[in-house]
Amino acid sequence: MSHRWYVIHVYSGFEKKVAQTIRESALKKGLEDYFSEILVPTEEVVEVRRGAKVNAERKFFPGYVLIKMDLTDESWHMVKNTPKVTGFLGGGGKPAPISEGEAQRILNQVLEGVEHPKPSITFEVGEQVRVADGPFASFIGTVEEVDEDKARLKVAVSIFGRATPVELEYSQVEKV
User: Fold this and answer.
1) Is 104 exposed, middle or buried (0-12, 13-18, 19+ CB in 10 A)?
2) pTM
């Protein structure tokens, strides 16, 4: 059996449910040998909710599930007839596998996202931000430096008519 990576299109928000349903259906029908991996590519992100940092999960490809399988008529029909699956990616009604290199790149992205959670909000140099917390609350400034690893910014705020650089965390500022 030659297992290849395929991409299936599913209803957005039901990716994990579809993956679970396919696993269960394969077990019930005795087709588990046709499927080696079913993956919903996600990464960990750090969000700020009500002033607190919270780890959350973000999908790389909302509405898509990666599946490593041996494509036979039986396995194809089982996946295609799973509730909330709209079809396989590929033209002409025939599923097209993605390359092993592309699949490996996605798997590495998933591993990287788990090991090093990223902030869900990104800032750019020159962007206007409002300070939401701390002694400079309600001041508006311009981003001068971004340190994504530490989730910190250097923001130039105008104090007494003079631009003063202030070091702030992502959670202390909001986009204007």
Assistant:
1) exposed
2) 0.67
